Amino acid sequence: MSETLDLPVVLLSHRGPVSFEVDADGDRTVTRGAGGLVTALTGLTAYLDDPTITQSALEDRFLRLCRRYRIPTPVTQHGRKPRVDFAWPDRRLIVEVDGWQAHRTRVAFQDDRTNTNRLQLAGNVVLRYTWDDVRIRHAEVAAQVLYAGKFSSTHSGPISARRYGWPPTST
């Protein structure tokens, strides 16, 4: 049995080098063209040094949300069965982001509920978000994560759950 590593590859072709870059927002981009091998290898090094491993564009977007709202960086792809998208183990907080492609089948739907119940019964707070939650309702998502994780203002800087109306106040 052989093992494989899921690593990006630097390609050089008649079209020129491939450049791997990470911008200020943490977005990873792959571009062709000018810059040469040194630029490509420098970008690849930054890409590989990123400790946050994700499996989807939605997970990448959630990590950007965490950076934007100064939420401490979570552990990604945490655990085995079930493996969760994001975790703050010391806070017993878990976030799952559910894209339609991976969660649309009857089996996936059932597995999500079974795993969430097991995680909650083990004493964890489990928050689940969709693509629209992360993309459109990002301030509310950030407020909920800050509140559920009891992250102090020293972690979140000027951003706080209360600023974004969480928890809701009763009238």
Topology of helices and strands:
Blueprint: E1 12-13, E2 16-22, E3 28-32, H1 36-49, H2 57-68, E4 75-78, E5 84-88, E6 93-98, H3 100-103, H4 106-121, E7 125-130, H5 131-135, H6 138-148, H7 153-156
Parallel strand pairs: 6-7
Antiparallel strand pairs: 1-2, 2-3, 4-5, 5-6
Entry keywords:
171 residues; alpha+beta; 2 domains; four-stranded mixed β-sheet; 7 helices; 7 strands; 39% helix; disordered N terminus
Give a written overview of the molecule.
The protein is of the alpha+beta class and 171 residues long. The protein has two domains: 38 residues, no CATH class; 108 residues, Endonuclease, Chain A (3-Layer(aba) Sandwich), CATH 3.40.960.10. It has seven helices and seven strands, in the order βββααβββααβααα. The strands form two sheets. A four-stranded mixed beta sheet has the order 4-5-6-7, with helices on both faces. Strands 1-2-3 form a three-stranded antiparallel beta sheet. Strand 5 and strand 6 form a beta hairpin. The N terminus is likely disordered.
* The CATH homologous superfamily of the largest domain: VSR Endonuclease
Strand content: 15-25%
Looking at the structure, what is the overall shape?
Answer: globular
CATH architecture of the largest domain: 3-Layer(aba) Sandwich
Low-confidence stretches: 1-9, 153-158
Q: Give a short account of the largest sheet.
A: 4 strands, mixed
The first-level CATH class name of the largest domain: Alpha Beta
Number of strands: 7
Structural domain count: 2
Structural class: alpha+beta
Query: What percentage of residues falls in helices of 4 or more residues?
Result: 25-40%
